[in-house]
């Protein structure tokens, strides 16, 4: 992990989201509470680079999907949601060493579906815009 990026996130009140699944391989994923659905971040590391030396698009999509899903759970009050659809627009390249931040927002919520969008930034630049539709599941997640 890029130590400077991790130190900066920790100093700014971010905490690591514990996960022993897929995110354990690509993360760590960081979280910071805000007035709405929270913010999520990953420090771009060498393991995230594509053949051109920039951050792999799949990592950006992973951050978007996970942050939208976590915001969907928070916004719906459900312990389980599943991605129905996600649209991703790549705006700019993210560089290794940059802190990637997702700030999801609930657009609309119904009894069974929740619609969200997010902007992923790297050092203040928009690198991805994504929107997602999530199914709100019944019962425990």
UniProtKB/TrEMBL annotation:
Q: Which GO terms describe its molecular function?
A: thiolester hydrolase activity
| Domain spans labelled Thioesterase | 53-124
Q: What is the top-level taxon of the source organism?
A: Bacteria
Q: Which Pfam families match?
A: 4HBT
Name of this chain's protein? Acyl-coenzyme A thioesterase PaaI-like protein
| InterPro entries, per the entry | HotDog_dom_sf, Thioestr_dom
């Amino acid at each position: 992990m890029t130590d400077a990026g991790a130190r900066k996130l920790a100093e700014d009140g971010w905490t690591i989201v514990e996960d022993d699944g897929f995110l354990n391989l690509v993360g760590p994923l960081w979280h910071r509470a805000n007035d709405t659905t929270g913010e999520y971040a990953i420090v771009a590391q060498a393991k995230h680079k594509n053949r051109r030396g920039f951050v792999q698009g799949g990592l950006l999509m992973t951050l978007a999907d996970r942050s939208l899903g976590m915001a969907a759970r928070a916004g719906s009050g459900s312990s389980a949601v599943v991605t129905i659809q996600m649209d991703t627009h790549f705006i700019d390249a993210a560089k290794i060493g940059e802190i990637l931040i997702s700030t999801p927002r609930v657009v609309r919520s119904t009894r069974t579906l929740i619609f969200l969008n997010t902007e992923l930034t790297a050092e203040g630049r928009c690198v991805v815009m994504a929107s997602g539709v999530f199914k709100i599941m019944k019962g425990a997640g």
